[in-house]
Amino acid sequence: MSIAREELEKMVKTWLETVEQITKSEGLPVIPDEKTGDPLWVDVRELRLKYLIPIKRVKKFFDGLKEGKVYATRCPVKKAYFFPPQADCPYCMDENLEWVEIKGYGKLLTYTVINVKPTSYLHYPDYVVAVARMEEGFNILCWMAADDPAKLKVGMDVRLVVKPREPEGFLTFYLEPG
Amino acid sequence: MSYVRPVAIVGVGQSRFGRVPDLTLNELAWQAVKQALKDAGITQKDVQMVSFANVGGWSAEPLPAISVNEYSGLSGVGTYRIEAACASGSAALTTAYNIIASGSADVALVVGVERMNESLTPTVVELIGRAGNYFWEFSQFGLTFPGYYALYATAYMNEYGAREEDLAAVSVKNHYYGSFNPYAAFQKRITVEDVLRSKYVAWPLKLYDCSPVTDGAAAVVLASAEVAKKLTDTPIWIKGIGYASDTSNLSKRPSFLNLEAARRAAQEAYRKAGIDPSKPHKQLDVAEVHDCFTIAEVIAYEDLGFARPGAGYMLAREGETYKGGLVPVNLDGGLKAKGHPIAATGVSMAGEIAKQLRQQNPKDRQADIVHGVGLAHNVGGTGHYAYVTVYSLEKGG
């Protein structure tokens, strides 16, 4: 089940208007707890958190998505892969990691279907989150595009694809049955 | 190794757990602090450090250590707030232990509190879901706390043939013991069918496989041997604390069959406490394990060495962790039924083991104390942090 974001915002707005009316009529923003009736003060302050996260040193990864490619980084000294990609090798203290395109084939290690969703995901239908062991030897965690989750099986072949995530439209990577 | 002073629990307290809309964070914490001080027979002026655990985000106070201390008459005492996700309570206890063991203080108060219902439930689901790797695993793929553990459940059940009924047995046991605990969020017994009929939250985990969103507080007083012997005849000695961590990204873990951090923490705690890691249950009277989800308790049996890898679910299936079994686990109802106020959980576990070893619990949920040794296993996040602590009635060498 999913709730459209507009609908969700409308629900919140209606609730806040109710609190506003109570505040005007009673002189205090106090409502009863929905289960026990205990009086609760509805905070008059609200905080919007929107993080600004630097991606400069792994920009190649995001450029890759635009070309339909998924990149990992690899330490030329230790030959160790990093996925999610990182710009520094903590083992040899090297900064000159190589960008390597992931071949895109792997096997399903485990998965789940998220039925009860966080607020910021309520607008999506239930989604499958999966972890795959890629041919190169490292794991990838992302959504699995599956028509019927009941047909998924641990150990099955999977491949990695780049697709836009709707309705936001940002490019990201998915696993698909291989 | 340099000289380490013995440290004991000399006072315990806790609030009721559950949905507590009639108490603020300060009032909730004070209930636990008041009990712990009285139980220890000390007053605020005896407390030399307050080691404070709270994850917050869902609750309003940004400096909860300070606001709780003020409310509790503890302003002026040295303090800090500590975060190790769901193991924050044990992290606060470990730090207080170290302060006393090193000789920096003789008496420290450990407080864990969480008012999770101060936010709406979907917001709480969101905030706990963010407690993994935010950018790569939450922001793009919307994992939830049950979702992370469901990844372990799927892998575990597939590898070893455990069934949803086996996981349900853990929930049934913990609700059974919760029914004897007046502080528990859930005090009603349930059946395997109740669990199996409950809705999927993150397949294959269902609502009754999950610990609830909980408000609650717990506190313990720690003291040096010199002070402890003046305060009580039954100090509960901390014999060994093991701690470890694991990767932020779950994708960086080689397997989803056990929590490596918890296994390592257990090994370290056993070594420090002189427990044989090949059959630790032979030396333990009782254990508190971190059953945030039923699968977590099953995996804990294996990480703690109560069962070999892949055989943990058989302990659940055969009822081996009830009283009278191999080793009784979560006789207070565990996180599942007692509730899981994130940072209060580890402190509550310490208090529960102390009360078990002092034999202060109602008969139905009091373990037989033969060896005088108990264990608490507290995991933060999805095996991101792990603390295992061994307690004993014997001070030893």
Describe this entry's structure for a reader.
The complex is a heterodimer of chains A (178) and B (397). Chain A contains 2 helices and 10 strands. Chain A has 3 domains: 39 residues, no CATH class; 51 residues, no CATH class; 75 residues, Beta Barrel (OB fold (Dihydrolipoamide Acetyltransferase, E2P)), CATH 2.40.50.840. With 178 residues, chain A is of the alpha+beta class. Chain B has 397 residues and is α/β, with parallel strands linked by helices. In chain B, the strands form 2 sheets. In chain B, strands 3-2-4-7-1-8-11-10-9 form a 9-stranded mixed β-sheet, sandwiched between helices. A two-stranded antiparallel ribbon of chain B has the order 5-6. In chain B, helix 1 crosses helix 2 and helix 3 crosses helix 14. The longest helix of chain B is centred in the first third of the chain and has 16 residues. The model of chain B has no long low-confidence stretch (mean pLDDT 97). Strand 6 of chain A pairs antiparallel with strand 5 of chain B, so a sheet runs across the interface.
Overview in brief:
Chain A has 178 residues and is of the alpha+beta class.
